[in-house]
Amino acid sequence: MKKELIGVYTIWLRDIKRYFRDKPRIIGSLGQPILFLFVLGTGIASSLSFKGGGGGDYLNFMFPGIIGMTVLFTSFFSAMSIVWDREFGFLREVLVAPISRTSIVIGKILGGSTIAMIQGAIILLFAPLLKIPITFTVFFKVIGIMFLVAMTIAAMGIVLASVIKSMQAFQVITNFLLMPMFFLSGALFPLNDTVKWMNVVSRANPLFYGIDAMRPVILDNPALQLYPLWLDMVVLASVTVVMSILGAFLFSRQE
């Protein structure tokens, strides 16, 4: 048991060290959410304000969605290191280590989740610019939700990385998956008043439940929550467990 825990910690620590040593990655990963929030969001908010729709309220509504987007992209792309390590032979060295494949998967999930949580926390610090008060209680509650969302998405990324052999294919497929997940999560607009098919499909999107949990906490408005917090957490935890088991199974078949 101790050997397995050391293995999980070592894999987690490797991902964290790689993240903090890559300064352009840290800075660059903040560019997309800032662009969406202060350029796209401000543009849409100005249009709504011009039409009498309350632009300032829209920026606040969008803010938790941007945090969700940050967690989504960061945690999913953390699984890309598996494809990278496979291409350069490092994965083979990891696989011959005297620990189970399940410990490897757990270490990768925790590493990607921690990085995504850090990125999301940085974006959360922009809340005062939008006049959104963030107390210590709210901050740590959102951190917990972000970490669970990140674990869910990281586990999904590992499942995909376990069956895809090339970096190019992984990037193409992830871009194909992530944008629909983002737009069907309720990040940019409420989904309860959309067309029926979009409303149904969004419920199969794990990110939807993450943003549904974060938005009322950040904005201190329970009316914005479509499902109870406990239900959002149960759905995310269930998907995480299923994807982790599937990822461990697929990883055990790696050569």
Helix and strand topology:
Blueprint (H helix, E strand, L loop, with lengths): L1 H20 L1 H28 L4 H24 L1 H8 L2 H6 L5 H24 L11 H28 L3 H17 L12 H7 L3 H14 L9 H23 L4
Helix pairs in contact: 1-6, 2-3, 3-6, 3-7, 3-10, 6-7, 6-11, 7-10, 7-11, 10-11
Count of beta strands: 0
Oligomer: single chain
Number of helices: 11
Strand content: under 5%
The major beta sheet can be summarized as: none
The succession of helices and strands, N to C, reads: HHHHHHHHHHH
| Terminal-residue CA separation | 24 Å
Roughly how many Å is the radius of gyration?
19 Å
Helix content: over 70%
Tally of individual domains: 1
Mean pLDDT equals 83
The rough form would be described as: globular
Uncertain runs with pLDDT below 50, 5 residues or more?
Answer: 50-55
Classify the secondary structure makeup into a structural class.
mainly alpha
Descriptive notes:
This protein is mainly α and 255 residues long. The chain has one domain (2-251). The chain has eleven helices and no strands. The chain has helices at residues 2-21, 23-50, 55-78, 80-87, 90-95, 101-124, 136-163, 167-183, 196-202, 206-219, 229-251. Helix 2 packs antiparallel against helix 3 (55-78).
Could you give a short description of this structure?
The chain is mainly alpha-helical and 255 residues long.
